[in-house]
Amino acid sequence: MDATACNGSKDSSPIFYLVGIPSLQEFLFFPVFFIFLLFYLLILVGNTLILVAVVAEPNLHKPMYFFLINLSALDILFTTSTVPKMLSLLLLGDHFLSFPACFLQMYLFHSFSCSEAFILVVMAYDRYVAICRPLHYPVHMTPHTNTALAASACLCGL
C-alpha cells in the first residue's frame, strides 16, 4: 500500500508542507527572519551567560543556582528544538518536513517543556524548604538530593 504525503504526492513516508505565517507577504520574510534570529540569539547568549556565571563563580554553587543551570540548559534545548527549522523556512523557503523529523521535533518540544515545568516545581520546593524550614535546609537539600530531583524532573519530561 502506497503512502500519500500531505501534499498529495506518493512517497514512502508522509511529508508535511509548512506555510510559516500564512498572512505574511513574502517580501516580509527576510525582516521577520532577522527578528526571530535576534530573539533566538538573545535566548542562547542569555542562557549561556547564566550557565557560565554560575559555573565560574564559587559563591553561586548552591542548590538554587544548580536548578537555575538546569532551567537554562533546558531553555536552550527547548528553543533549539523548533526555532532553527522556522528560521530555515523564513530564510531559505524550506517548506517541507518529513514525518520522522516532525515527530522528533514535536516529541522534543513537549518533553523539554514538561521538563522545564518540573524543574520549576523543584525550584519552588527548594525555596519552600529554604523559607519554611531554614534549619533543616542543609539536611534536606544535599547535593545528592539536588541531583536526584533535577534528574527526575528531566526524566519525567521525557
UniProtKB/TrEMBL annotation:
Domain G-protein coupled receptors family 1 profile as annotated: residue spans? 46-158
Q: What is the species listed in this Swiss-Prot or TrEMBL entry?
A: Hipposideros armiger (Great Himalayan leaf-nosed bat)
Q: Per its UniProt record, what Gene3D superfamilies does this chain match?
A: Rhodopsin 7-helix transmembrane proteins (1.20.1070.10)
Membrane topology, as annotated, equals: Multi-pass membrane protein
Q: What is the lineage of its organism?
A: Eukaryota, Metazoa, Chordata, Craniata, Vertebrata
Family, per entry: Belongs to the G-protein coupled receptor 1 family.
List the GO molecular function terms. G protein-coupled receptor activity; olfactory receptor activity
| Annotated keywords | Cell membrane, G-protein coupled receptor, Membrane, Olfaction, Receptor, Sensory transduction, Transducer, Transmembrane, Transmembrane helix
Return the InterPro entries for the record: GPCR_Rhodpsn, GPCR_Rhodpsn_7TM, Olfact_rcpt
Q: Which residues form a coiled coil?
A: none
Signal sequence extent: none
Protein name per the record: Olfactory receptor 2AT4-like
The UniProt entry, under SUPFAM superfamilies, shows: Family A G protein-coupled receptor-like
Q: Which residues cross the membrane?
A: 27-52, 64-83, 103-125
A single Gene Ontology CC annotation of this entry is: plasma membrane
